Amino acid sequence: MNGPSLRCMNCGKACGSNAALYAQVFVCLTCHKMATSLEAGIQRELNGLMVVMRDRIREALVTGKCFYPEAKEAIAPSQKRDIVHALVDLMQKKGAAHEHSGDISDSVHTLQEDREH
Ligand SMILES: [Zn+2]
Q1: Domain map of the chain by residue range?
Q2: Residue 70 pairs with which residues in a beta bridge?
Q3: Cα(63) to centroid of ligand 1, in Å?
Q4: For residue range 51-60, what is the model confidence (pLDDT) as tens digits?
Q5: What's the CA gap between 16 and 29, in Å, rounded?
Q6: Which residue in 44, 47, 49 sits closest to 110, CA to CA?
Q7: Of 23, 88, 25, 108, nearest in space to 15 by CA
Q8: What crossing angle do the helices spanning 104-116 and 78-97 adopt, rounded to 10°?
Q9: How far away, in angstroms, is 13 Cα from ligand 1 center?
Q10: 0.85 surpassed by pTM
Q11: Rounded distance, CA 25 to CA 35, Å?
Q12: Cα(24) to centroid(ligand 1), Å
């Protein structure tokens, strides 16, 4: 292909017409696919965390221990940081492994183990 070709902002490859935008970032289709698959993996993790959190709230409700201030403290701020760290770790692992597809049960399991320490 002749003429000026924009380069993927992630891998630097000349894209030609095989380019796309991910969150307003110009990338090649390969990097776009990687970004969307990372996003999908994180979405699955968040969904898994929601299940865990919902179960915790449910447990608090059925034992009569769900009060707004305590519930707020129970989730924030330390656990929020744990969740963010876990997601960052996950992203870095996935970034290094590229095509590795996320296994939600492993990651949620890891999160639960981390909280117990
Ligand atoms: Zn690229």
Answers
A1: 35-116
A2: none
A3: 51
A4: 999 999 999 9
A5: 10
A6: 49
A7: 25
A8: 140
A9: 6
A10: no
A11: 11
A12: 14
